[in-house]
Amino acid sequence: MARSHFTEVCGTEVSTTAVQIAKDKYGVEIVGDSLESIDFGDRRFDTVTLFHVLEHVHNPVDVVRKCHALLRDNGMLLIAVPNELESLRRRVRHALNRLGLRQIKYHGLLGIPKIVLDGSLAEIHLSHFTPAVVADLVQRNGFAVVENDLDPYYVKHGPAGLLHAAYYRLMRVLWKLTGKNFYDTIWLVARKQD
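^ thats the sequence. predicted structure below, dont judge the formating
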């Protein structure tokens, strides 16, 4: 995706397997380490993307600050994170669980995923965000919010695509009517300020 929009692409990944796949399959420059640990020297970027990254890191503030340092003046930061606290899906799941109609094995009282370290979950989210929290995070660290919206790229394809597209459109209508993001993901675009 990035190659079609940018002439120079560089990524980071902590998984050595994922680094090798990205290099072999896509020919993308990938640095095998966490973003906040890498020394890029004087190298600066026009755009930094954090697509479903912040929920997995130990200190999201450090990551956002590193992005600020890596961006050129007026550079753009694009963030997509799960909306696990305010989404309609989480609210319905929580209500069904409280009514005893559905037992949720890996979710706690508030419907927030539990951290399970025995390999039974595919991924662990160390942080949970709301649209307001993501906006505050970037604003406190040298960015101006350009867009805080539903994640437009989290649309499924195939047989489930039609149902998901209808769900996305419903969330879009609710967003327009209420100003609240009830969708499963948050999309935020921010510009570096000095």
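The first strand starts at residue 10 and ends at 12.
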